[in-house]
Amino acid sequence: MTTTTNPITSLQATTTLSNGVRMPWFGLGVFKVEEGAELVEAIKAAIKHGYRSIDTAAIYENEAGVGQGIREALSGGETGLTRDDLFITSKVWNADLGYEQTLAAFETSLGKLGLEYLDLYLIHWPVAGKYKEAWRALEALYKQGRVKAIGVSNFQIHHLKDLMETAEIKPMVNQVELHPLLTQQELHSFTKEQGIQLEAWSPLMQGQLFEHPVLRQIAARHGKSVAQAILRWNLQRGVVTIPKSTKEQRIIENANVFDFELTSDDMEQIEALNENRRVGPDPDNFDF
């Protein structure tokens, strides 16, 4: 079972993965953020304001900017942080799934990021007939110490079961689309049983939930924004979350979720909003 190593009362609070690695409950996502100054400044702002986890992917084509932001944030010693204080995730893209291809893709990602190791490396999508060979590559990288933890993204229960039939090492994390209209309750229960940490991408449904009347009511009761209420809901469910933003003010605001607690009624009301509605592709029906 994944457990909290300390209560979720700060941005540095961590969950302990099945292999003992500590992963922050909260991080910054950079999906669709283009290379350039805005990205570099967003990374620096996040680290300055207490974020320790950054999530990127090969297909985002922004690993170089993420790496630059990390280097600039750590240089000069102003933050007092070192590389080891951060938790950096990237993902192997579908076109690179396969044993040798995945090993090569990892080297490319690491080179662009300018890092010596990754904290977490994920298979981005469960491409049929390809993810098992890619998983073997991740296991090899893990054994070599090139990556501290390995996992998958967008895997449904049947994908996980299929992978675990032949896997030597069980995935430590499964990162999936998860928000109040897609609560992933069944998958959440399964991953919990298996000791796999669930992580939410698109936790705010790309801004589509901000006017939702139920969420607005709950947020207002706590003097918080809808975004903050949703992010808090994820944390209280034991789901790692990585909201995306490039604006410093929003980066700060998103992380201001450690000074209040949703009631069990609030939690149930949000759970009840589930419609199994996705903003991203269906992991059982994608063609890329």
From TrEMBL:
<dbReference type="InterPro" id="IPR020471">
    <property type="entry name" value="AKR"/>
</dbReference>
<protein>
    <submittedName>
        <fullName>Diketogulonate reductase-like aldo/keto reductase</fullName>
    </submittedName>
</protein>
<feature type="domain" description="NADP-dependent oxidoreductase">
    <location>
        <begin position="37"/>
        <end position="275"/>
    </location>
</feature>
<dbReference type="InterPro" id="IPR018170">
    <property type="entry name" value="Aldo/ket_reductase_CS"/>
</dbReference>
<dbReference type="InterPro" id="IPR044500">
    <property type="entry name" value="AKR5G"/>
</dbReference>
<dbReference type="InterPro" id="IPR023210">
    <property type="entry name" value="NADP_OxRdtase_dom"/>
</dbReference>
<dbReference type="Pfam" id="PF00248">
    <property type="entry name" value="Aldo_ket_red"/>
</dbReference>
<dbReference type="InterPro" id="IPR036812">
    <property type="entry name" value="NAD(P)_OxRdtase_dom_sf"/>
</dbReference>
